[in-house]
Specification:
The complex is a heterodimer. By secondary structure, chain A is an alpha+beta fold. Helices cover 46% and strands 14% of the residues of chain A. In chain A, helix 3 packs antiparallel against helix 4, helix 4 packs antiparallel against helix 5 and helix 4 packs antiparallel against helix 11. Chain A is globular. Chain A starts with a strand and ends with a helix. The longest helix of chain B is centred in the N-terminal third of the chain and has 33 residues. Chain B contains 13 helices and two strands; from the N terminus they run H-E-H-H-H-E-H-H-H-H-H-H-H-H-H. The model of chain B has no long low-confidence stretch (mean pLDDT 83). Helix content of chain B is 69%, strand content 2%. Classes of the chains: A alpha+beta, B mainly alpha. At the A-B interface, strand 1, helix 4, helix 5, helix 7 and helix 13 of A face helix 7, helix 12 and helix 13 of B.
């Protein structure tokens, strides 16, 4: 019987993807207790936006989750739209959906790379995925002008419509990506080491998942059918045919599987959206043209972000928010770090951490 | 009068008694010759280390759709030299709680051990320093010092990640040295000798990879574990234990650890070539050339494996060792005995 050892993983560690610190108690090689310390990247965004006018804030919101900034941008702008009671232009809805789904693909590909990297695959898949992800980023760049941060959403529409010829280019890229994703899956399914590292590791059952409030791929991997795009449809998601991806394992492998299937589904979604997209005006307007801002109103908007369900709660105060509360999906998902690794080996802790897919900027805000 | 020649002869006769030298190499007929041979081998191995480091970076980069080093020198050939100079120019940090002397001598000791192994390996029908009748035994005994030294430096550096790494190292030692030695025993049975040159001579007909394919697979897997290469890089485990036993090691010592790593790779590849791939046997080309070709081929395979597979779980690694490799290596030994006995 070995004495318990406490080791300190992070805040600077190759596998924590940012500044997460875990104080791990080990009994031999078995994890008996995990104590996540967060907050190293706290920027006080919620307080900061109280001092800014509404349309000065989207760029802060993008930095919440720098792997999928466009979706957070959209969430914030939708919150402002809900506050103002503005309906988004028909074409702009389609453009937003296309861009959000592209962002989801990019974000999920990133996840695939980091998972493989964390379980000890020497950056190979990571690099391949980055090359594929770059194609998606190029599409987003064509559409918005930005590669990392986009700030493309405006009240009632978008800043830039999709350029001419976008659909053809996008379809080419999507065909290629579909082929690539299949390749990755073939490669990983044939890797028994990968299966051993992922299967049966960090099982989160559905009851626990619901009680902890986790969302996104973690919830769906535990067998709960909940996707904000289906449960609370917004924009044109009702018109599009897509399935929510549910796996029953609840383990790291199920989480990986959900994400991989979501990539394929998002590819189909974008393709369908591009085909049936109506013509028309999609441009949004500067906020000062919209009219008087309401004083007494509270709005909540929820969106299915790549990392889970994001919500924003806004109380206005004239030109500025009185309070903006953000429900960051990663923050809630990070709770599971206390429970999932317990009883597993130290090595599995890193597989679990990778499968939760935290973005620390989102956790700490 | 005591001449250098006499001293050399005395040392040799003493060595002959204690280590069982069957004869001294034809290329060495005096002390100067021995010295020159040793230096030539060391330079050759250093060149191999250097080029292996370059090849590893380039090959992995190609597999990852990158370019690898391109700026320093033609095809980035001088990049490793630049890195080496940089590492030696940096401060050598010794952790406050470290056992200073143990911490400082562990890595140079490892380098010394691998240099020693390199010197006693044969490189051709005539290109060897000493032909020990128990050469293979000595090489593997020296190789198994490695986990011990890993344990030593981890203990000396008083780092928790290093100590976890050392624990893993000892676990791997138990589960992978046994199959390794059993396979080596079966090679010895098959060639009726523990001398490396004799083993190569015995493979002038069929190579042992053909006669003992199972043994080769076991040896390759156990050697990957021994060389700390993926999927068995549990000791270093960069995404888990930061750098494992090297976590607290400062830059100059790290440079030595790179030398150890690459030399170990050379020794591993050379042993695989000598024991299973027929050593320097081959048509047309000079025998030394054949050995080098085989060593390079084995190292390329190891690098490709490195860039392809994720890391094994520790418990699976141990299970693989105990439940598969050890029984299978006993099967392999039996197979070797049957082959020798002419029962097949």
């Amino acid at each position: 019987m070995m004495a318990e050892t406490k080791i300190n993983i992070g805040p600077v560690h190759p596998s924590t993807h940012g500044v997460l610190r875990l104080v791990v108690t080990l009994d031999g090689d078995t994890v008996t207790h995990v104590e996540p310390h967060i907050g190293f990247l706290h920027r006080g965004v919620e307080k900061l936006v109280e001092t800014r006018m509404y349309m000065q804030s989207p760029s802060y919101m993008e930095k919440l989750d720098y792997v999928a900034p466009l979706c957070h941008d959209e969430l914030y702008v939708s919150t402002v739209e809900a506050l103002l009671g503005v309906t988004v232009k028909e074409r702009a809805q389609w453009v937003r959906v296309v861009q959000m789904e592209l962002q989801r693909i990019a974000s999920h590909l990133f996840f695939l790379g980091t998972v493989l990297n964390d379980i000890g695959q020497l950056f190979t898949v990571f690099m391949w995925v980055f090359k594929d992800r770059d194609l998606v980023l190029r599409l987003l760049e064509e559409g918005t002008g930005g590669r990392m941060f986009y700030v493309n959403m405006r009240v009632g529409g978008v800043n830039r419509d999709l350029p001419p010829g976008f659909a053809e280019h996008a379809c080419k890229v999507l065909d290629y990506l579909e082929h690539r994703v299949k390749e990755y899956e073939d490669y990983l399914n044939s890797s028994s080491i990968f299966m051993e590292r992922m299967k049966g590791i960090g099982v989160l059952d559905s009851r626990k998942a619901i009680n902890m409030g986790v969302t996104g791929h973690m919830l769906r991997a535990s067998g709960v059918e909940y996707d904000a795009r289906k449960a609370h449809p917004y924009y044109i998601y009702e018109k599009l045919r897509f399935r929510q991806m549910v796996e029953n394992g609840g383990d790291c492998y199920a989480r990986y599987k959900v994400r991989m299937r979501e990539i394929v589904e998002s590819i189909r979604l974008v393709r369908e959206a591009l085909h049936s997209m109506p013509d028309g005006d999609a441009l949004g307007m500067p906020i000062r043209l919209i009219g008087p801002l309401p004083k007494e109103k509270e709005v909540v908007v929820r969106r299915e972000l790549p990392r889970g369900e994001g919500m924003m709660y806004l109380i206005p105060d004239g030109q500025r928010p009185y309070r903006l509360a953000i429900r960051a999906p990663c923050f809630i998902n990070a709770y599971t770090l206390e429970h999932l690794p317990v009883g597993h080996r130290l090595q599995d802790l890193f597989a679990i951490m990778a499968s939760i897919d935290l973005v620390l900027a989102d956790v700490d805000r | 009068m005591l001449t250098g020649e006499m001293v050399f002869q005395t040392i040799l006769s003493n060595l002959e008694i204690s280590l069982g030298i069957s004869r001294v190499s034809p290329v060495i007929n005096d002390a100067i010759g021995a010295l020159i041979f040793g230096i030539v081998v060391l330079i050759g191995v250093t060149i191999f280390d250097y080029l292996f480091g370059w090849m590893e970076r380039k090959l992995i980069a190609k597999m990852q759709l990158r370019h690898g080093p391109t700026v320093v020198g033609k095809y980035g050939l001088l990049q490793n030299l630049a890195d080496f100079v940089k590492l030696f120019a940096k401060e050598n940090i010794i952790p406050a709680n470290a056992n200073r002397w143990l911490f400082l001598i562990s890595l140079p000791l490892m380098a010394a051990i691998f240099t020693f192994i390199v010197e006693i390996l044969p490189y051709g029908p005539a290109a060897w320093g000493v032909n020990l009748t128990l050469g293979m035994l000595l090489v593997f005994v020296l190789l198994s010092f490695m986990p011990l030294l890993v344990f030593m430096i981890s203990w000396a550096s008083a780092n928790k990640f290093a100590s976890i790494s050392a624990q893993r190292s000892v676990m791997m030692l138990i589960s992978y040295e046994i199959p390794l030695f059993l396979v080596v025993a079966s090679v010895a049975v098959l060639s009726h000798s523990l001398s490396l040159t004799q083993i190569v001579a015995a493979q002038s007909g069929w190579w042992y990879i053909v006669l003992m394919p199972l043994g080769f697979v076991i040896f390759l897997i156990a050697m990957l574990a021994e060389l700390e290469r993926p999927p068995f890089d549990l000791r270093e485990a960069d995404s888990e234990l930061i750098a494992g036993w090297l976590t607290d090691v400062g830059a100059p010592l790290y440079a030595i650890s790179l030398f150890v790593d690459y030399t170990r790779m050379f020794v591993g590849a050379a042993l695989i070539s000598i024991l299973f791939l027929g050593g320097w046997n081959g048509p047309a080309l000079p025998p030394e050339m054949w050995l080098i070709i085989k060593i390079v081929a084995v190292s390329v395979v190891v690098v490709v494996i490195r860039a392809t597979v994720p890391r094994m779980r520790l418990d699976r690694t141990l299970r693989l060792g105990w439940l598969w490799l050890i029984p299978l290596s006993i099967v392999n030994l039996t197979w070797g005995l049957l082959l020798v006995g002419g029962l097949l």
